[in-house]
Amino acid sequence: MPASAAVTGTEFFGPWEQVISDRDTAIASITQMLDLATSKRTLAWRGVVKAEYPLHSSLYRHLLVPGRPTPDEEDVAKFEGHMLDRGRREWRFDNLSALELLAHLQHYGGPTRLIDVTFNPFVALWFAVEQKFAEFGIALPDDSDARLFAFDVTGREIGLDDRWGGRELPWAKDPGDGWRNKLPSIWRPPSYNERIPAQNSAFLVGGIPQVKAGDNAKNYRKAPGDGTSRGTWTSAEVRSATSVTTRMNKADRKPQARATPTFTLRIEAAAKPQLRQFLEKSFGYSAATLYPDLFGLAKHVTNGLR
Fold it and tell me: Distance from CA of residue 295 to its chain's centroid?
């Protein structure tokens, strides 16, 4: 699908969102979703600084080329195979399982299909309102709304067992039925670095979405505002908005008992400074506590010190 026809995060997720305008609505909205989830559900959270951004992994963003069709599962798997092969043969990282090697690559900024999430909603909120900097450490203005996601990952946790902890990527040859249209799995990696425990982090791991005929009811194309249905998104449109499958649910509507919903909250740009102050004073969240390594210090010195 040409880049000109890409679906933004606002178009895809906007009809399902609830709005955060200040500290009180942030606390109320997060509490509401936790209450909807109840103790029987596990939620993983992700914050992004711009609400219009798609929900894409770093590898998916890496493979997106303007003017060309959206990448598919075969494109992502092929890149992963080359990346792991070179890492093992030329860099000699041959002592790690495939998932572990991807986790380390993710930490050092390499492109992977892993999507960072946290089990702490207020950590995710901090990432959504985090102060960003331009060249020479100049703080960028808070002129864009942000977005918060909450994924129901109940019963989808994986570990480094015989299937997921092997040398080969488990989805490379025989991903199993539904890999491309089922919801992503969740992996709590070991504490390979200081950021993992500090952020209570995990990874979403899933196939690139494919909408099968008769199975796209979860991808309704809803109109902003009134939320009326306008048909369904195509597979290419879904992939331009997200590189993992989601089942969107209104944040103020209790999901069915067997549902596995994804919720989203939009954070108004004007609320970002207040929320940063609230999170630091109430929870101690800052660049130092959430990026507690030398990479974090180096970036902070580059951005924030004069």
Answer: 21
Distance CA 207, CA 175 (A): 9
Strands 185-187, 157-158: pairing is parallel
Measured between its terminal Cα atoms, the distance across the chain in Å is 45
CB atoms within 10 A of CB 13: 27
Domains of the chain, residue spans: 3-304
HSE-up of residue 104 (Cα within 13 Å, Cβ side): 12
The predicted pLDDT at position 4 comes to: 39
Identify the DSSP state of 14: G
CA distances from 189 to 98, 105, 193, 288 (A): 13, 13, 10, 22
Left (φ > 0), alpha (ψ -120 to 50) or beta: where does 223 sit?
Answer: beta
Structure tokens at 57: 């992994």
Model pTM above 0.85: yes
